[in-house]
């Protein structure tokens, strides 16, 4: 970016060409913006722009990338992801400023960024300035570094100098705003601050729970109907429920709730396993779409296997029904996207549960 002007802001006693341009293009009521209003406006804009980017990008990656989900399980996964989203948030900030003419934080506090000759900066100029804010202002978002970089920029402004990322190319102008706009900004800033604090607390809690799960040992679960035991990885939480028909359901939920595996036993009467399975699918049709299905041998037993999804499309479903000693045993696995994230865990648990019903020969 070309910066032909001197590095220091000239005093009124010896105006140069840029200073004359400032006086000419500034609005009558505008004055150079002070440090604190600039900090509050910039912090507000970075918070909500980065938060929006992190929400959209995080949701998309969590539904499509198993590797991303595994990365989030690392001790600093979410924090590193948040830091990585700041440049994208500053890109969104530049786009908003280019399209709308200003960003919400600066608009509410009566601030605007112009070039030294009073021109509204183009997208590349705004983005270049924002990258300077990211490095020289926010210290790349690193807490210890950002305290030093922001203090340095604040001291420059108090001495009457331009921020290092403004140099003598950009000006931040301020005009008086009504009291109610300051109150609206204050309430908006406080609300956004609370959101940041709550999300940080949730991240800390999730990190502690994740660390506890990963450090835990597998546990033994015994099938009460057969007395056979299986070792279950610590990622699975077991609960027992009884449905409205009195059927006992053993439910295993993966710790991030991306997968649920259900084990149940039910008498099938005079019906064949195929007839029973089709009737079961009909009973579940309000919640699941399970088209087709096929008979196959499973560990020397007659078995029915069908795959499908939840009616709202949020989870992949696999149902296997096996006839063992006159009873119909079923294992149903439900996996939220990306299914590959829990494939290995689900397959291992399914095989372990079947070992408690009909051990491998």
UniProtKB/TrEMBL annotation:
<feature type="transmembrane region" description="Helical">
    <location>
        <begin position="183"/>
        <end position="202"/>
    </location>
</feature>
<dbReference type="InterPro" id="IPR010432">
    <property type="entry name" value="RDD"/>
</dbReference>
<dbReference type="Pfam" id="PF06271">
    <property type="entry name" value="RDD"/>
</dbReference>
<keyword id="KW-1133">Transmembrane helix</keyword>
<keyword id="KW-0812">Transmembrane</keyword>
<feature type="domain" description="RDD">
    <location>
        <begin position="33"/>
        <end position="194"/>
    </location>
</feature>
<protein>
    <submittedName>
        <fullName>RDD family protein</fullName>
    </submittedName>
</protein>
<keyword id="KW-0472">Membrane</keyword>
<feature type="transmembrane region" description="Helical">
    <location>
        <begin position="131"/>
        <end position="151"/>
    </location>
</feature>
